[in-house]
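Annex B. Sample input.
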Amino acid sequence: MVTIQDLEAALKAGLPCQHLAVDGDGRHFQALIVSDAFKGLSRVRQHQLVYQALGASMQDDLVHALALKTLTPDEWEAQRG
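Annex B, continued. Sample output.
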């Protein structure tokens, strides 16, 4: 079983995160990720970077569902504005 802490650790190891919030019940998760790595990328490419950072957790079907919200630091600041 994958925990919130497992996902957070994988994301922090695989992406430079300025802000990270993960929630979930062990199979279904939601993540808000703010990263400079997302600058200039489409949402699809941003999500691909997240899946790449999660690696085996996604490939081995340990995570049944993952809802992502990916933002650049500028987008994050504008939303919080």
